[in-house]
Specification:
Structural class: alpha+beta
Shape: rod-shaped
Radius of gyration: 25 Å
Strand content: 5-15%
Number of helices: 2
Helix content: 10-25%
Number of strands: 4
Order of helices and strands: HEEEEH
């Protein structure tokens, strides 16, 4: 009868067992309360730069929007 030479470690055993239970879940975006753009929860909004109602970083203006504002 076959007997293992070494004991299987807990981490190795866990890696083998985890293959059936781990799967990729869909990410669930939410809407930004400031600009209504889709954002990920617990992240600053990439379109307006706000997080929890505060401006976290200033957005750079595109050349096309800057030209339209001057005209």
């Amino acid at each position: 009868m076959a007997v293992p030479k070494k004991r299987t470690s807990v981490s190795r055993k866990g890696k083998r067992r985890a293959g059936q239970h781990h799967k990729l879940y869909r990410k669930h975006p939410m809407t930004c309360p400031n600009c209504k753009a889709p954002t990920m929860p617990h992240y600053a909004c990439p379109s307006c730069g706000t997080y929890k109602g505060r401006e976290v970083f200033a957005m750079k203006a595109d050349k096309s929007t800057a030209e339209q504002a001057q005209a």
